[in-house]
Write a structure and sequence with these properties.
The protein is α+β, with helices and mostly antiparallel strands. It has a domain of 134 residues. A five-stranded antiparallel β-sheet has the order 1-2-3-4-5, sandwiched between helices. The chain is globular, with a radius of gyration of 22 Å.
């Protein structure tokens, strides 16, 4: 009886060890692939929100306890723009990450959504080309924009039935603007950005 129990335990231990090793190996392989895919997506996003450039210098800032990455783009000796990888934790579905492009003159050139988990057909419309959120701020002078939706007394449009998602989007852009001001030398340190209104009753309003 003891021998049988010992054999069962030994076999179970061996199977567990082999399975754990296999899972570990798969995780190592997939982690590298995921990291490469993320890096490629980031590179593409930088190119998509900026005019043509030769190279970028990367710097980081901490704003509201979040790491914001700035890619300062140059062509020859001229700075042509700033791509800012910004984020918010206040989306309806959690974190939202954006790549926001600013021209050397401070205009908001473009925005790419890198990560979101918003409600399909509602908040997810922020990823669509020509969406109202981007349309409200694109090609505007960043210092002239009050990053508030009309429902909060601002002038910016919101996605239909997705006010929380819209607030969060603009919050992330506002945080990018704060990082841009430091990167271009307008101010020494970034100001914080107030967060979006919390969810209530499970509705994205």
């Amino acid at each position: 009886m003891k021998s049988t129990l010992f054999n069962m335990v030994a076999v179970l231990f061996t199977v567990t060890l082999i399975a754990s090793a296999g899972v570990g190996a798969v995780n190592m392989i997939t982690a590298d692939a995921i990291a490469e895919a993320n890096a490629a997506a980031t590179t593409a996003a930088v190119a998509n929100v900026l005019p043509e450039f030769d190279k970028t210098d990367i710097s980081e800032q901490t704003i509201d306890d979040m790491t914001i990455v700035v890619y300062t783009a140059t062509k020859g000796s001229e700075t042509v723009g700033y791509a800012v990888e910004s984020m918010t934790k206040n989306g309806f579905g959690g974190a939202i990450r954006l790549m926001v492009g600013f021209g050397a003159d401070g205009k908001i050139l473009n925005v790419n959504v890198l990560q979101q988990a918003e409600t399909p057909g509602l908040g997810t419309k922020m990823t669509e080309e020509g969406n109202v959120l981007l349309g409200s701020i694109q090609n505007k002078n960043s210092w002239e924009v009050d990053f508030k939706v009309k429902k909060d007394g601002g002038e910016l449009d919101a996605l239909t039935a997705a006010t929380i998602s819209s607030r969060a989007y603009y919050e992330a852009v506002a945080r990018a603007y704060e990082a841009y001001k430091v990167a271009c030398g307008y101010q020494e340190t970034a100001d914080g950005v107030s967060g979006a209104t919390a969810q209530k009753g499970g509705q994205n309003e």
